[in-house]
């Protein structure tokens, strides 16, 4: 079972998400929280696999909670899915920088929420498809960081090439076609790259690449 923590200041939203997720049969909501500080406590207490995190909440926002949870490396930190009514703005950008692994709008279809939780639990980060390219473009616009030679040396030439294509928003299949290799080869190289830089998923790999001037 995939253990989920729901974080939202509206009880009706949490109740709706609980029903949607638990009807899937392989997801269990182990706890709920109504603000950022209580989410940090619940994350430590219940050790969820995935946290569905709202952004704007009285008593403590979701971005700071995401940063605190992601920074706790004593155990493997849970994947954090930002689920909000706000589109591409400071909230999305800040949440991804803080360590979030994915982003969905609250008006998404029920199956999209379930699929997102499963993907994050499986180590696949995601961003709502409607804003994926925009998020990457925003990182490119804001992150004019100089290349860090130490960061660049962490990866082989092939791994760097794959990370660059990943940062362009390509899927494994698209990268494989671009490089004339099998998708399994791309997955293998990407997994090794993620292990080297300490990124838990594709989204945080792209964040790392921009933050370190690799892209």
From TrEMBL:
Domain HTH luxR-type positions: 148-213
CDD domains attached to this UniProt entry: LuxR_C_like (cd06170), REC_NarL-like (cd17535)
Organism: Glycomyces sambucus
UniProt keywords, alphabetically: DNA-binding, Phosphoprotein, Transcription, Transcription regulation
PANTHER family recorded: TRANSCRIPTIONAL REGULATORY PROTEIN NARL-RELATED, TWO-COMPONENT RESPONSE REGULATOR
Protein name: Two component transcriptional regulator, LuxR family
UniProt modified residues of type 4-aspartylphosphate: 54
GO MF terms held by the record: DNA binding
GO biological process: phosphorelay signal transduction system; regulation of DNA-templated transcription
InterPro entries: CheY-like_superfamily (IPR011006), NreC/VraR/RcsB-like_REC (IPR058245), Sig_transdc_resp-reg_C-effctor (IPR016032), Sig_transdc_resp-reg_receiver (IPR001789), Tscrpt_reg_LuxR_C (IPR000792), WalR-like (IPR039420)
Annotated ranges, domain Response regulatory: 3-121
Top-level taxonomy: Bacteria, Bacillati, Actinomycetota, Actinomycetes, Glycomycetales
């Amino acid at each position: 079972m995939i253990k989920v923590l729901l974080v939202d200041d509206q009880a009706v939203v949490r109740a709706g998400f609980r029903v949607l997720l638990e009807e899937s049969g392989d997801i269990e909501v182990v706890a709920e929280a109504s603000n950022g500080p209580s989410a940090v406590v619940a994350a430590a207490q219940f050790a969820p696999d995935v946290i569905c995190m709202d952004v704007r909440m009285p008593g403590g926002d979701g971005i700071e909670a995401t940063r605190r949870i992601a920074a706790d490396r004593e155990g493997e930190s849970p994947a954090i899915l930002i689920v909000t009514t706000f589109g591409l703005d400071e909230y999305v950008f800040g949440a991804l920088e803080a360590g979030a692994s994915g982003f969905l709008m609250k008006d998404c279809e029920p199956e999209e929420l379930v699929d997102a939780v499963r993907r994050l639990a499986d180590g696949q980060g995601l961003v709502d498809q409607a804003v994926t390219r925009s998020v990457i473009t925003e990182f490119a616009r804001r992150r004019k960081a100089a290349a860090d030679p130490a960061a660049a040396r962490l990866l082989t030439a092939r791994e760097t090439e794959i990370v660059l294509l990943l940062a362009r928003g390509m899927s494994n299949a698209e990268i494989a076609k671009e490089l004339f290799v099998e998708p399994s080869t791309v997955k293998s190289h990407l997994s090794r790259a993620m292990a080297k830089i300490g990124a838990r998923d594709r989204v945080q790999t792209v964040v790392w690449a921009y933050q370190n001037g690799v892209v």
